Amino acid sequence: MRLKKMIAAAWVVLVFAVVPMLCAAEEPKAERVWPVQVDEMVAKVKKEIKLIDMEAFKKIVDNKGDAIIIDAREPEEFTSGHIPGAVNIPRGLAEFKIWKAIAGFPDKTNTALKLYVYCKLGGRAALTVKALRDVGFTDVTAVDMKIADWVKANYPIER
After folding, report:
1. pLDDT tens sequence across 21-67
2. What is the distance, to the nearest Å, from the Cα of residue 122 to the centroid of all Cα atoms in its chain?
3. Hey, where are the domains in the chain?
4. How far apart, in whole angstroms, are the C-alpha atoms of residue 141 and residue 123?
5. CATH 1.25.10.10: does it fit domain 36-152?
6. Quick one: 25 exposed, middle or buried, by C-beta within 10 A (0-12, 13-18, 19+)?
7. What element of type H or E holds 100?
8. Strands of 87-88's sheet in order across
9. Distance in Å from the first CA to the final CA of the chain
10. Left if phi > 0, otherwise alpha if psi is -120 to 50, otherwise beta: which for 13?
11. Model confidence pLDDT, tens digit, residues 86-130
């Protein structure tokens, strides 16, 4: 009888202690590669700019009109798959590259273009929108989404 109680106790420990630890170990937490201050800065910027979610953005992609979609990721990220019709202007160069890429500089510079900016997680899009507003663009919106969610929803991607 004592042996049965010990086996039962071992199963309880296994089920309630060891199994949850093993399950947690299967999905490692993403390693933080920047300090929390960066997340705080992005959150602050998101309060100052115009944002839309993925569903609103999908409607714009489906019926683009005169809107311009900017992918703020790095070129290698862009070539791995991007929103159809997007122009790649990486976050780090947005203030410099936008002029010739889409704004018509120097002949007919247009800072009233309707711009929608997305990236991998939403942070670079927000910072890009702020930067473009700071240099004079007036109709710039950040897409607050993860590109992985776009793909998961089976929305279109170009390669």
Report:
1. 444 444 456 788 889 999 999 999 999 999 999 999 999 999 999 99
2. 3
3. 36-152
4. 13
5. no
6. exposed
7. helix 94-101
8. 50-52, 139-143, 114-118, 68-71, 87-88
9. 66
10. alpha
11. 999 999 999 999 998 898 888 888 999 999 999 999 999 999 999
pTM for this predicted structure: 0.79
| Cβ contact 157:84 at 8 Å | yes
One DSSP character per residue, 73-95 reads S-HHHHHT-B-TT-EE--GGGHH
Task: Enter the tokens of residue 105.
Answer: 């500089």
Closest CA relative to residue 68, chosen from 86, 51, 53:
86
| DSSP states along 12-58 | HHIIIIIHHHHHHHHSPPPPP-S-HHHHHHHHHHHHHSEEE-HHHHH
